[in-house]
Design brief:
- The complex is a heterodimer of chains A (72) and B (366).
- Chain A is mainly alpha-helical and 72 residues long.
- Chain A has one domain.
- Chain A is 76% helix and 0% strand.
- Chain A is built from three helices and no strands.
- In chain A, helix 1 runs antiparallel to helix 2.
- The longest helix of chain A is centred in the middle third of the chain and has 22 residues.
- The relative contact order of chain A is 0.11.
- The relative contact order of chain B is 0.23.
- Chain B is 72% helix and 0% strand.
- Chain B contains twelve helices and no strands.
- Chain B has one domain: Amino acid/polyamine transporter I (Up-down Bundle), CATH 1.20.1740.
- The longest helix of chain B has 44 residues.
- Chain B starts with 7 loop residues before the first helix and ends in an 11-residue tail after the last helix.
- Chain B is an all-alpha fold and 366 residues long.
- Classes of the chains: A mainly alpha (72), B mainly alpha (366).
Chain lengths: 72, 366
């Protein structure tokens, strides 16, 4: 599974990074890298079957337990 | 960079299609308000009207500006950016929540033996393709899909005519008052005010003056479809409508005309996949477009593969069971969406009328 993740992300980098460097779009490259690295880390963790907490369940906890807003 | 432009009619159909795609969310509603869900759709529509008026008023005050640009102009660089980050998270969360819902439908009803990852992967890949094509391409699909959805709903109603029993709409108005409040809140927040995403397209309209008219037109198309679909489901399923996880699918499954027109749910399944494709493509596009505008990038297209990968990853982890999904949909999601669809736009709107009240020309022009 991790091999597929690496191949997919290598392909994304190979398609986009050279274009950005050639055009000297450094800000675009930085923003691209932030999302790219974040996506790669999350996908790799999932490939290694690491349990990642759901952001929605965190938001649900905040709404229900901190703000006390819920119909439940 | 040259801005993509869409006509008012395509914009109208896009809004209608986005609301039609939410017809799968009616299970959240029917489990709360049962046979009275159709009434709640009307209430939800009426409650959402002031919000829609506010969205269109914001767009009219800043013609040619998108939501992210309006935030910057009205709230300043710092607060504007903070609001924009909230919106981007909201758009992104709608993406992965809807992909998760799509996976639940396809994996649960159509392809139960297929690994869910491959369903997500293939689906998001197709959406990625549409998003790279741009809003002109996606909006053109929208017009076609609205008519296809109408045709499917009409065909299914005709074929299920013998199963439609108006007595199933009873008992009416017997639920506790809070259930109607909850149902109205869910309907207003989920399908109707989700259209806040279209504030991102106010800069893409060929004629920005038509923004309000097209917005209300789209809302009416979507609202009418939702109402018809819900009435059909209740009239066919009766008191069991609230225990079905997908009432549309179950109501259509009952179609049996002379023993040879059966299994119509496969047509509904295909239609729902098409509508999901449209909705998620719009949400995906809005997410990457908002990031592009936030950081003033040259193009949103470089972000599409990474954000697509994130959508797949988050869709996999968002809910561990369908019970969690149902609980979120029935009890919490309305409050979550209200923050982004009512609270944030209201602050922006009040700030806009306060800061720009004294201008001779009420429209902000750069």
């Amino acid at each position: 599974m991790i091999v597929l993740v690496i191949i997919a992300f290598a392909l994304i980098a190979w398609l986009d990074v050279p274009k950005l460097i050639n055009r000297k779009e450094w800000k675009d490259l930085i923003v691209f890298s932030i999302f790219y690295i974040f996506a790669f880390i999350i996908a790799s963790l999932q490939a290694f079957k690491v349990e990642i907490p759901s952001p929605i369940l965190g938001i649900q906890f905040f709404i229900e337990k901190i703000l006390h807003l819920s119909y439940g | 960079m040259q801005k993509e432009q869409i006509s008012s009619s395509l914009f109208l159909f896009s809004i209608g299609c986005l609301i039609q795609a939410s017809s799968s969310l009616t299970s959240f509603l029917t489990s709360v308000t049962k046979q009275d869900s159709w009434v709640v759709v009307i209430f939800g529509f009426l409650v959402s009207l002031p919000m829609i008026w506010m969205y269109t008023a914001l767009a009219a005050k800043f013609p040619g500006k998108s939501l992210i640009e309006i935030n910057d102009i009205v709230l300043g660089k710092v607060f504007g950016k903070i609001f924009s980050v909230f919106y981007i998270f909201f758009f992104f969360s709608l993406c992965f929540l809807n992909v998760n819902l799509f996976g639940g439908f396809v994996g649960g009803s159509l392809l139960p033996d297929t690994p869910i990852l491959s369903i997500y992967l293939l689906f998001v890949l197709v959406c990625t393709w549409a998003v790279v094509g741009g809003i002109e391409v996606i909006a053109r699909y929208g017009a076609l899909f609205v008519f296809l959805a109408f045709a499917t709903v009409f065909l299914n109603i005709v074929l299920s005519w013998k199963d439609i029993k108006l007595i199933n709409l009873k008992p009416s108005f017997t639920l506790p008052f809070i259930k109607y409040v909850q149902g109205t809140h869910i309907t207003a927040a989920l399908p109707f005010c989700d259209t806040v995403v279209f504030l991102m397209f106010s800069s893409n309209l060929k004629n920005p003056r038509d923004f309000g008219k097209a917005f209300f037109g789209g809302l009416c198309i979507g609202g009418a479809t939702l109402l018809i679909v819900l009435l059909r489901n209740i009239a066919v399923l009766g008191s069991i409508v609230n225990i079905e996880s997908n009432p549309n699918y179950e109501a259509i499954r009952l179609i049996n005309v002379w023993g040879f027109i059966t299994r119509m749910e496969s047509i509904y399944g295909i239609m729902l996949i098409i509508l999901f494709f449209f909705k998620i493509s719009i949400l995906f596009y809005v997410t990457v477009k908002a990031i592009e505008e936030l950081f003033h990038l040259h193009s949103y297209r470089i972000l599409v593969p990474s954000v697509g990968a994130l959508i797949i990853s988050f869709s996999m982890i968002v809910f561990s069971s369908s019970a969690e999904d149902a609980y979120w949909g029935e009890n919490v999601v309305a409050f979550y969406s209200t923050f982004f669809e009512v609270v944030l736009p209201s602050i922006t709107f009040i700030a806009a009328i306060t800061r720009f009240r004294n201008r001779e020309n009420r429209q902000f022009k750069t």
